[in-house]
TrEMBL record:
This protein's UniProt keywords: Cell membrane, Membrane, Transmembrane, Transmembrane helix
Compartment(s): Cell membrane
Domain named SSD: residues: 174-321
Main location: membrane
Source superkingdom: Bacteria
Gene3D superfamilies named in the record: Multidrug efflux transporter AcrB transmembrane domain
Signal peptide range in chain numbering: none
Descriptive protein name: SSD domain-containing protein
InterPro entries per the UniProt record, alphabetical: MMPL_dom, Mycobact_MmpL, SSD
Length: 710
């Protein structure tokens, strides 16, 4: 790191020029990336996704989603079959549409209990083409009918315009404003603007890299939110650590490039370890054979890598060129550790057993709701609390038509199979409202649409999909089942059946990396275990708040979701595990440095946290502001992602890093720093043998002066 820092400083103007070009190109790319992002929810190799592809080839339709036009007659009369047939005919005239309705079948199960309203099921090509809503309205109005088109995806978008909300740029500016307030408190000088500049370069450069990535693979639309808000927090956090250490070294008397190099050797090393840790957490997603998850992993992977690269190159160049001039008026000094954090840490050390027990109890309480976690999609009741789509779905349910119309199950029958036999068998399943055949496709295959009573969106409700598979799977001509419920099952099999192995692999790789970084066995083991506990606690709180609805209605006006959307847990885990480990690395790296100087665990804990406590808390607040801005997005899933990450970061920075970590390091004593010679040789680092802990007098905790960090 020392050689790298000197190399950067020798070429500082070239470094600055390179990142200026990258930032300008990134501004151009940021405007074009959203149009190149995708929403591929397929799961290759799973029955639901493969059947959906077969259905698309046979009929040219997307069997994974259905639009549901709802027609309602005026007060005082029932809807007539002929007028429904007229609307359905107008829909069939649209290219590629397949329509099931009361008009063509005469099936009374398409009607509400009072006979005033009816629903239609419309399956469209993946490229929707002409507006369905305008066609329905134009055909319904001359017949005196009210018409509304609803769908699950429309409710996901908030029941109205999916473009509503602050927007990515506005959300980023909101997060940046919150971060600036924290930075002004930390630095009390114009230096507070430097981390924001680093974040701007990092975000725009990441958009440039993603634009290039979209030319070779699909990238999920969620990635733009991750780059803007998580990229903002990560870049500022990393900058905060390096700039604070630079100020500290200047306060100790180092000047010019010496202070920059020392900051790089110490804080820069921690940033590199943290960036690699976050990247490792995300790279595991790339190995998952699910395009949505893989693209999130690829896009997310670029965030810590580029942020780390910018912080380790552009930031030292800027500090060397202009650091002392912008560090004005310097109302806050960095010569001594924070008195408040020193007092806090001494209290934790003194009452270490009580501190550790209290933190473990708090984490346990937070983890308990995790046992009820459901994987799938959010229930329709939580997706929109107002609007035409919400009101229409509510009236359907009041009329005896369940919300299962939003998530039909589609059976595909191969040529030669008896489609009616499939419809009869599926229709006999408990929890199924109706099962109706489409007209055979040109290939001879036939689709049977099964409408469940209740939406199939989570672990529990997809049992009806499994039951339909069981009663039809042995019939001649069975080609597969698809639909939203089948998609939930696909994700469970492809992702969550393997998730424990993925988590174990991530934990093992991170453990090895940290053993090398800290030259210790117990510190990395403790870090990994506490990180997993911290992430589990965040999931428990998110389950309690969002899935079970304990507060989501009061805070966001959204009812309990009933389940976590299948891609959320893996993404939350990957980011939260990596970001939480950042703070562990920052704190433990400084504790190790203080221990190397003094040989005293008590001094290392006290002054390690005394120096980093304010930074970690400030960094957590910056990320929290970024996630709070992300929470203003209209989509429920994005709100869940934002709140889970925000609460997880705060929980980790307070209960875990400020309480449990110093208590446990204090309890473990000299064993914290032990690395046997045999393991050290394998990892190519210096060993750290066990040696008696130095007991410094109370006054020494104030008198020990830092030695050269090199």
């Amino acid at each position: 790191m020392q050689r790298f820092a000197h190399a950067v400083l020798r070429r500082r103007w070239w470094v600055v020029g390179f990142w200026i070009v990258a930032m300008l190109a990134g501004g151009f790319a940021a405007a074009r990336v959203p149009d190149r992002l995708s929403a591929d929810f397929s799961v290759p190799g799973q029955e639901g996704s493969d059947t959906q592809a077969d259905l698309a080839r046979a009929y040219g339709i997307d069997g994974g989603a259905a639009s549901v036009p709802v027609l309602t007659a005026p007060d005082g009369r029932k809807i007539e079959r002929a007028e429904v047939a007229g609307v359905a005919a107008a829909l069939r005239a649209l290219p590629g549409r397949q329509v099931l309705d009361y008009g063509s079948t005469g099936d009374q199960r398409f009607l509400t209990d009072d006979g005033r309203s009816t629903f239609l099921l419309v399956f469209a090509p993946p490229a929707q083409g002409p507006s369905l809503a305008s066609t329905v309205t134009a055909a319904a109005l001359p017949r005196g009918l009210d018409a509304t088109v609803i769908s699950y995806q429309q409710l996901v978008a908030g029941g109205a315009n999916p473009d509503e909300g602050a927007g990515v740029l506005a959300e980023t500016l909101i997060g940046a404003a919150g971060a600036l307030i924290v930075l002004l408190f930390v630095f009390a000088s114009f230096l507070a603007f430097v981390p924001l500049l680093i974040a701007a370069v990092s975000i725009l450069s990441t958009f440039l890299a993603v634009l290039v990535l979209t030319t070779v693979t699909e990238v999920s639309g969620v990635v733009q939110f991750l780059i803007a808000l998580i990229g903002l927090g990560v870049a500022i956090d990393y900058s905060l650590l390096v700039v604070s250490r630079w100020r500290e070294e200047r306060a100790r008397g180092r000047s010019g490039d010496d202070a920059v190099v020392t900051a790089m050797v110490t804080a820069g090393k921690a940033v590199l370890a943290s960036g690699i840790t976050v990247a490792v957490s995300l790279v595991a997603l790339v190995a998952v054979n699910v395009p949505l998850v893989r693209s999130m992993g690829l896009g997310g992977l670029l965030i810590p890598l580029i942020s780390t690269l910018v912080v380790l190159t552009l930031l030292p160049a800027l500090l060397s060129l202009a650091g002392p001039r912008v560090d004005w008026p310097r109302l806050r000094k960095e010569k001594h550790a924070s008195a408040a954090w020193l007092t806090w840490t001494r209290g934790v050390i003194r009452y270490r057993w009580i501190a550790a027990g209290s933190a473990v109890a708090a984490l346990t309480i937070a983890i308990v709701p995790l046992s009820g976690l459901q994987i799938g999609s959010s229930g329709s009741g939580s997706l929109a609390s107002s609007g035409a789509a919400h009101d229409t779905l509510t009236s359907l349910r009041a009329g005896g038509v369940g919300n299962g119309v939003l998530t039909p199950v589609t059976l595909l029958v191969a040529p030669g199979g008896d489609a009616q036999a499939f419809a009869d068998a599926a229709g006999s399943v408990d929890g199924v409202r109706m099962a109706i055949r489409l007209e055979p496709a040109a290939s001879g295959a036939t689709a049977v649409v099964v409408v469940p009573d209740h939406e199939t969106v989570d672990n529990t409700s997809v049992t009806v999909v499994t039951a339909v598979r069981e009663v039809t799977g042995d019939l001649p001509g069975y080609a597969g089942v698809t639909g939203p419920g089948a998609q939930v099952i696909d994700f469970q099999r492809a992702v969550y059946d393997k998730l424990p192995y993925v988590i174990a692999l991530i934990a093992l790789v991170v453990f090895v990396l940290l053993v090398r970084a800290f030259r210790s066995l117990l510190l990395p083991l403790k870090a990994v275990v506490l990180n997993l506990a911290s992430v589990a606690a965040a999931f428990g709180i998110a389950t309690w708040f969002w899935q079970d609805g304990n507060g989501s209605q009061a805070v966001f006006g959204i009812a309990g979701t009933g389940a976590m959307t299948f891609w959320l847990p893996v993404l939350i885990f990957a980011f939260l595990f990596g970001l939480s480990m950042d703070y562990e690395v920052f704190i433990l790296d400084r504790m190790r440095e203080e221990y190397e100087r003094t040989g005293s665990t008590a001094y290392a804990v006290e002054h390690g946290l005394g120096r980093t406590g304010r930074l970690v808390t400030s960094a957590a607040l910056i990320l929290f502001f970024a996630f709070a801005a992300l929470g203003s997005a209209p989509q429920t899933d994005i709100k869940i992602l934002a709140t889970a990450l925000g609460v997880g970061i705060l929980l980790d920075a307070t209960v875990v890093r400020a309480l449990l970590v110093p208590a446990m390091v204090s309890l473990l004593g000299t064993y914290n720093w032990w690395l046997p010679a045999g393991i050290a040789r394998i990892l190519r680092v210096a060993p750290s043998p066990l040696k008696p802990d130095v007991e410094l007098p109370a006054t020494a905790h104030r008198l020990v002066r830092p030695q050269n960090a090199h």
